């Protein structure tokens, strides 16, 4: 039996009430929880936006729960959350970290997103052997995690599964391929964030979005000293300021 994250307050979805003229949907990453994007959501909410951070299916509870979900569950959850916000908000922007960044791209490709902020977007993961996950997950169902030894990092908010269900790596790969395939369909303003010390996703993923999207307004923010979860890293305040300003303009 693996750890149960369901009682951790940072594993819960969050909502900050604000003006319904502009809603901001915030999406966490693979094996993670809303806690990893909560400080960013709080910063964005200070401008008076209606902000909602969702909890994707199979996350924030146990690895066993995650093994019972797949890419379609996460895709549907993101699209349902966007559609719900679009019914109550005049315009909706999307901010997503890692797999949430891939989902942000997918939403921008298929919904009238006002502005999109993919952060360390998981359009191709670097995990060794990830492409073979679908062949070996029944033999090696769980991949042990690694400890994080970062300076100036909000560890309390980094609520996630320490280990990785191998079956779901293939689901992540599938989402990444879906998002990367139709980047040209993105036309909304973009702020794409690259974490300079990212060891989880391909370093060129942010550049792919910039080069292949059809958006007229697109900016690349590079955080040279930040890990993959840059929302909790040493350059987080710079990230918060840039994202808030982008959504404000």
Automatic annotation (TrEMBL):
It holds the Pfam family Hydrolase_4. GO terms for molecular function: carboxylic ester hydrolase activity. Residues 24-228 form the Serine aminopeptidase S33 domain. It comes from the Bacteria. This is Thermostable monoacylglycerol lipase. The active site is at 98 (nucleophile), 198 (charge relay system), 228 (charge relay system). It comes from [Clostridium] leptum CAG:27. Substrate binds at residues 30, 99.
